[in-house]
Design goal:
With about 230 residues, the chain is of the alpha/beta class. It has helices at about 25-40, 55-60, 60-70, 125-135, 155-170; strands at about 5-10, 45-50, 75-80, 105-110, 140-145, 180, 190-195, 200-205. The radius of gyration is 21 Å and the shape is globular.
Length: about 230
């Protein structure tokens, strides 16, 4: 039941034509052909994550490339890393700013790097929760990366951390899933999300007492702890 998405890195340091003078045009033909093949021979694709930070639209002939992609898969969600804004922004290993007029998604690592490395330092559960909550309250998503081991398994300690996140979400997920950021902009003491007529307040600093929330324009009918 998980929608299928594709990660595609435009830079290809192994291809003899990549950024090789006039031969780069031949590489672009290869790149466009690969993208078209992936969008026409493997069923429904829901999302497309380009990589290659710092590249410009002309480096990939992006206007023509994205036009072809939209034609092949009209509902495809495409990120902003082919030199064009496309559908959403992708801050990396940092939380995006509060932004509710354009979608964004923080891509971050559960360890220090994207690939698997034995004994790499992991984020703590508290760090992961802060990351998750901070993205939700800023009206963005979190894409949390884990690097598989050489045999394809997720490292047990990383899997354990993901399960702890899952346990927290079983209890508190209604304050994250399907919500929008706000109504109040994030601050060090508390942050907020909302869905329909319900506002969720996440207290980040328990030493601030009392926490004073700015007035809302609508009447508050009740307040309670989520648990």
């Amino acid at each position: 039941g998980v929608p299928f998405g594709i990660y595609y890195s435009q830079p290809d340091w192994y291809h003899p034509d990549y950024r090789n003078g006039d031969r780069h045009a031949r590489y672009l033909s290869y790149l466009h052909g690969q993208v078209e093949e992936l969008l026409t021979r493997y069923g429904r694709v829901y999302s497309w994550f380009f990589d290659g930070l710092g590249g410009k639209a002309e480096d990939w002939d992006a206007p023509r490339l994205l036009a072809m992609m939209r034609q092949r898969m009209p509902d495809l969600v495409i990120n902003n890393r082919a030199g064009l804004p496309a559908d959403y922004d992708t801050p990396e290993n940092r939380v995006g700013f509060f932004q509710n007029q354009r979608p964004w998604e923080t891509c971050a690592t559960i360890t220090r790097q994207w690939a698997y490395k034995p004994d790499d330092r992991m984020r703590s559960l508290e760090e992961c929760l802060q990351l998750l909550i901070s993205c939700a309250v800023g009206d963005g998503n979190l894409l949390l990366n884990v690097g598989p081991m050489p045999d394809g398994r997720i490292a047990p300690e990383q899997a354990g951390l993901l399960l702890q996140l899952g346990d927290w979400l079983k209890k508190n997920g209604s304050s994250i899933y399907g919500t929008r950021g706000g109504p109040w902009e994030p601050n060090p003491a508390y942050v907020s999300t909302n869905r329909g007529k319900t506002v969720y307040v996440h207290v980040l600093d328990g030493s601030v007492n009392p926490i004073k929330l700015p007035a809302l324009t609508t009447k508050i009918s009740s307040a309670r702890l989520l648990s």
